């Protein structure tokens, strides 16, 4: 490709709209442009990489025996009404009416449709096991789209669904996808971690996430370097860590704590430690209200709480007016004593003595509170979020934590959708069985951003060869110099003939601009044709190398071919 | 691919929902399934062909120097409001609001977005000419989706847009697309006709459609075998054909025509010929009303009328209550005499004498009406639709007519969108120029259906090799016979190694079922491994051949390879 013909609007300035590296670089390198909040178009270089990611995903899915099909993105409401998700998705589902006033939505994920396809198409138990997938646009009206294509409202997902007649079959189908995912993310050049994930809310029996560790990741990961344990925060079991409590047999006492609404304010006002407090937080779980208690230095894990409470749809912080009504106090003074709603207590709180809680009265707290003496928990369970300083629930060694970008998710769905929609099959003995499903997603567009987050330097993107939009770039230092132009042209053609996807920077730009652009767009290897080209010498430089190396032309061409073929 | 693993739900029965051959066959061969009116999913065989069509389109677009990018399908209203098309598309645009109450739509076509992309990305006149394209889902809420994927509400389109600084540049860009389209449709195995199309309404300067002739086509084509002229009905110029009128110098006379609302009823009631009448039809053009007159045996061409009237948005039949108000009569008795709205008269009507028209009074007509004596036309012009019996406007020989499926459209847009959105560029002399655009569409999904309409027999689809989901199929007559299975397996592997995309029908089905399925899904060549396989003999049959031929195994394999490679 001649760059004089390439739509590649690189930017020297960092666009104000971007907060994170990948987003900045995707804009600066001219890979994407924003059309609306969370909605992007892909320009030629971005699309080429996207298509390569898609192709790698497709090849590995096919190799794993999955079959590709393509659903509509525009879907009739009935599909989601049958499973109840028409309501569950709430405002995150784009909904509309057609000209005949029928309800439609843009598919956020396609469990129902694949289930229905199998109901309609499969006639014999012999056709199972079966894994179907598609690579397709998905739509979620995120409340806070951000980080470019990492959390966007339109995105491309590979979603796959397995259909089995037995649990063992599901285990095998799941393992095939696990293996395929490892191959895919390796081929994409991603350094990833596989973590155990929560599967409770959807009623499944097992779930793992493929995470790319990154400070900008929105998911917390707990992992243990000693035993290899890894789980996301929702799933990671917290072993209670005891902290000193005031010793003694005290009676509960109401204390005046004017204007102390937060743990920090209380700590300073009462000259205590955060771990001497127990926070009481009021949640709305579906249509009822519950209280959750964790130690003052801990955070409630809402997924654990949601599963514990048996909440089906939404768990969210109670509205302030409801907090006032339930506690008879301003927000910030909730406590368990005398509270008329279920109180779920974290295991660590159950180890505390003589602790401090809100008094359900504005500007008042209780101190010297003790469980079962001053109030009775509805249930004691692990409802907090793991953090650094915790121990590995598997081996007891110190746990580490990191942030991760979720690029893949595999999930043993069980019979949630086959039950809801009626997907059954007679087995070989003539017995009717509910088909057991798994679902498997890859955030295809998100993988691009994750790859950039992991592969960049101060000059720009460093594409892994497998997904680089072009493998190599040939730069004549001075495009007006006839000799340089001719030799650059020859190198360009030689590389093309040898199967290398190559750019020729034939633009009438200063050499510095060309070098900067080549680095910014992350082409894995470049050949610079300069003054010495008359002597048969050019410069060879891999994107990650410190310095360029002079080589004779044929060697340079051969080295490019070898480098690319070794890293495809 | 082993067919025991293939999701291929073929149907023996013709589905009731399908009216036309391609739709029936796509359902019967398990290529698509309906999700809602005009919305389909593609099953594995359908998707493979779709991807091949896409790839051919992509290759030829790239070869023509066009650059691929990918826009969002979900688009903010602003893009279409600036061009005025937010209103123009009317109920055929899927519209919705996001969670922040902002207006969005599903893109029906992307002129505005590509124009905006060029405004945002191109900085120098040196970057022109430029042609950009995408292959992407489009959405139109058709009032009457029908014929399967021929007129659907979600479909895949290749849309391209060229950007030039001069008219000559546009001509060149247009010609490149013309040539690329010829190559594309040839490679797809389509027998197509290129017709001149109307470009008036959009303000362009030239337009052609690529039509696949088919009785189920929704577009009329007029063509001349003598001189090669071809145009669609909207564009085809009608040379007035005179018919005998009653001779004499009569005065207009009101006659009673009870219950005669149609030309047929009048012809029989008055014992006249249809060509002795002039029909007067009331239209609503944007927000005003006009009358159009054509001879009783002719039809009004609404596109010609729309252009003549200068209607910007919609031209449609006037509402019955407005017809009653304008004519003071029941519907069916409109006439030009005394009518208080503009009257547009077809050239043929202007040649008539002493003709019959409605009297603007229920159950009454006028006879012996003469133009300029009894009423004065607003304008006389060609506003009728061409038909068999007309003459070629170019050479005067008899014209032929046919129905066509529009698979491609190329259009010199001019500056409609660059004016509306402000796409200008300084040229090399520093003068500001409005960029001149062309737009070029291919109905990618529609091409599949068109290919089937043109390539089928009573047994099923006959795929052209270039877009067949698989090239070849190997069928062991009896899958339980070990020798047949083994040899079939060997042939299957041999063909795979030689780069043939091959199916192995390893299903435990009767031979008849396998043969029927192979024909139905249209695989170009098949090898049947039967009783003689022990002697090294198998049957070779191309899908279009009358009979199978016995060959020894190696010859059969080589002949498949040769046949496929010659027809790719």
From TrEMBL, chains A, B:
<keyword id="KW-0436">Ligase</keyword>
<protein>
    <recommendedName>
        <fullName>Proline--tRNA ligase</fullName>
        <ecNumber>6.1.1.15</ecNumber>
    </recommendedName>
</protein>
<dbReference type="GO" id="GO:0004827">
    <property type="term" value="F:proline-tRNA ligase activity"/>
</dbReference>
<comment type="subunit">
    <text>Homodimer.</text>
</comment>
<dbReference type="InterPro" id="IPR004154">
    <property type="entry name" value="Anticodon-bd"/>
</dbReference>
<dbReference type="InterPro" id="IPR002316">
    <property type="entry name" value="Pro-tRNA-ligase_IIa"/>
</dbReference>
<comment type="function">
    <text>Catalyzes the attachment of proline to tRNA(Pro) in a two-step reaction: proline is first activated by ATP to form Pro-AMP and then transferred to the acceptor end of tRNA(Pro). As ProRS can inadvertently accommodate and process non-cognate amino acids such as alanine and cysteine, to avoid such errors it has two additional distinct editing activities against alanine. One activity is designated as 'pretransfer' editing and involves the tRNA(Pro)-independent hydrolysis of activated Ala-AMP.</text>
</comment>
<dbReference type="InterPro" id="IPR045864">
    <property type="entry name" value="aa-tRNA-synth_II/BPL/LPL"/>
</dbReference>
<dbReference type="GO" id="GO:0016740">
    <property type="term" value="F:transferase activity"/>
</dbReference>
<dbReference type="InterPro" id="IPR002314">
    <property type="entry name" value="aa-tRNA-synt_IIb"/>
</dbReference>
<dbReference type="Pfam" id="PF04073">
    <property type="entry name" value="tRNA_edit"/>
</dbReference>
<dbReference type="InterPro" id="IPR004500">
    <property type="entry name" value="Pro-tRNA-synth_IIa_bac-type"/>
</dbReference>
<dbReference type="InterPro" id="IPR036754">
    <property type="entry name" value="YbaK/aa-tRNA-synt-asso_dom_sf"/>
</dbReference>
<dbReference type="GO" id="GO:0140096">
    <property type="term" value="F:catalytic activity, acting on a protein"/>
</dbReference>
<dbReference type="InterPro" id="IPR033730">
    <property type="entry name" value="ProRS_core_prok"/>
</dbReference>
<dbReference type="Pfam" id="PF03129">
    <property type="entry name" value="HGTP_anticodon"/>
</dbReference>
<keyword id="KW-0067">ATP-binding</keyword>
<dbReference type="InterPro" id="IPR023717">
    <property type="entry name" value="Pro-tRNA-Synthase_IIa_type1"/>
</dbReference>
<keyword id="KW-0547">Nucleotide-binding</keyword>
<dbReference type="GO" id="GO:0002161">
    <property type="term" value="F:aminoacyl-tRNA deacylase activity"/>
</dbReference>
<keyword id="KW-0648">Protein biosynthesis</keyword>
<dbReference type="GO" id="GO:0005524">
    <property type="term" value="F:ATP binding"/>
</dbReference>
<dbReference type="GO" id="GO:0005829">
    <property type="term" value="C:cytosol"/>
</dbReference>
<dbReference type="InterPro" id="IPR007214">
    <property type="entry name" value="YbaK/aa-tRNA-synth-assoc-dom"/>
</dbReference>
<keyword id="KW-0030">Aminoacyl-tRNA synthetase</keyword>
<dbReference type="Pfam" id="PF00587">
    <property type="entry name" value="tRNA-synt_2b"/>
</dbReference>
<dbReference type="InterPro" id="IPR044140">
    <property type="entry name" value="ProRS_anticodon_short"/>
</dbReference>
<dbReference type="InterPro" id="IPR036621">
    <property type="entry name" value="Anticodon-bd_dom_sf"/>
</dbReference>
<feature type="domain" description="Aminoacyl-transfer RNA synthetases class-II family profile">
    <location>
        <begin position="38"/>
        <end position="464"/>
    </location>
</feature>
<dbReference type="GO" id="GO:0006433">
    <property type="term" value="P:prolyl-tRNA aminoacylation"/>
</dbReference>
<keyword id="KW-0963">Cytoplasm</keyword>
<comment type="similarity">
    <text>Belongs to the class-II aminoacyl-tRNA synthetase family. ProS type 1 subfamily.</text>
</comment>
<dbReference type="InterPro" id="IPR006195">
    <property type="entry name" value="aa-tRNA-synth_II"/>
</dbReference>
<dbReference type="InterPro" id="IPR050062">
    <property type="entry name" value="Pro-tRNA_synthetase"/>
</dbReference>
């Amino acid at each position: 490709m001649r760059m004089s013909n390439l739509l590649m609007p690189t930017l020297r300035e960092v666009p104000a709209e971007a907060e994170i590296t990948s987003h900045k670089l995707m804009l600066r390198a001219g890979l994407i442009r924003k059309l609306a909040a969370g909605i992007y178009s892909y320009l030629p270089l971005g699309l080429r990489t996207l298509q390569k990611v898609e192709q790698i995903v497709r090849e590995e899915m096919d190799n794993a025996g999955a079959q590709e099909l393509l659903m509509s993105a525009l879907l009739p409401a009935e599909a989601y009404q049958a499973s109840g998700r028409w309501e569950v998705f709430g405002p995150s589902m784009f909904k509309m009416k057609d000209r005949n006033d029928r309800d439609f939505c843009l598919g956020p994920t396609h469990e129902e449709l694949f289930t229905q396809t199998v109901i309609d198409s499969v006639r014999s138990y012999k056709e199972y096991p079966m894994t179907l997938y598609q690579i397709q646009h998905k739509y979620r009206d995120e409340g806070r789209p951000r980080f470019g294509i990492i959390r966007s409202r339109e995105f491309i997902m590979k979603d796959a669904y397995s259909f089995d007649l037995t649990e063992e079959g599901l285990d095998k189908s799941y393992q095939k996808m696990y293996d395929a995912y490892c191959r895919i993310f390796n081929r994409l050049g991603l350094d990833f971690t596989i973590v155990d994930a929560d599967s409770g809310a959807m009623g499944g029996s097992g779930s793992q996430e493929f995470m790319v560790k990154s400070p900008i990741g929105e998911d917390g990961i707990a992992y243990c370097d000693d035993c290899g344990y890894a789980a996301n925060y929702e799933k990671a079991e917290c072993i209670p860590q005891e902290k000193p409590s005031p010793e003694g047999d005290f009676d509960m006492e109401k204390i005046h704590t004017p204007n102390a609404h937060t743990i920090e304010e209380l700590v300073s006002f009462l000259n205590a430690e955060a771990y001497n407090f127990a926070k009481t937080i009021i949640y709305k779980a579906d249509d009822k209200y519950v209280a959750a208690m964790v130690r003052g230095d801990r955070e409630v894990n809402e997924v654990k709480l949601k599963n514990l409470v048996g909440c089906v749809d939404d768990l969210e912080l109670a509205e302030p007016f409801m907090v006032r009504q339930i506690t008879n106090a301003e927000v910030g003074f909730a406590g368990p004593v005398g509270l008329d709603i279920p109180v779920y207590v974290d295991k660590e709180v159950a180890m505390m003595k003589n602790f401090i809680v809100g008094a359900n009265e504005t500007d008042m707290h209780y101190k010297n509170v003790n469980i079962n003496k001053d109030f009775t928990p509805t249930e004691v369970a692990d409802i907090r979020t793991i953090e650094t300083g915790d121990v590995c629930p598997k081996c007891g060694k110190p746990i580490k934590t990191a942030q991760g970008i979720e690029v893949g998710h595999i999930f043993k769905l069980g019979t949630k959708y086959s039950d809801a929609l009626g997907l059954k099959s007679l087995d070989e003995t003539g017995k009717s069985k509910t088909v057991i499903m798994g679902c498997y997603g890859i955030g295809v567009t998100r993988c691009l951003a994750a790859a950039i987050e992991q592969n960049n330097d101060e000059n720009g993107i460093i594409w892994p060869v497998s997904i680089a939009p072009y493998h190599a770039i040939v730069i004549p230092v001075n495009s007006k110099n006839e000799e340089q132009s001719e030799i650059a042209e020859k190198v360009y053609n030689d590389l093309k003939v040898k199967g290398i996807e190559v750019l020729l920077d034939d633009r009438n730009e200063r050499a510095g601009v060309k070098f900067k652009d080549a680095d910014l767009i992350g082409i894995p290897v470049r050949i610079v044709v300069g003054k010495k080209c008359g002597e048969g010498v050019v410069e060879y430089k891999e994107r990650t190398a410190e310095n360029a190396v002079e080589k004779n032309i044929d060697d340079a061409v051969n080295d490019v071919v070898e480098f690319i073929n070794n890293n495809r």
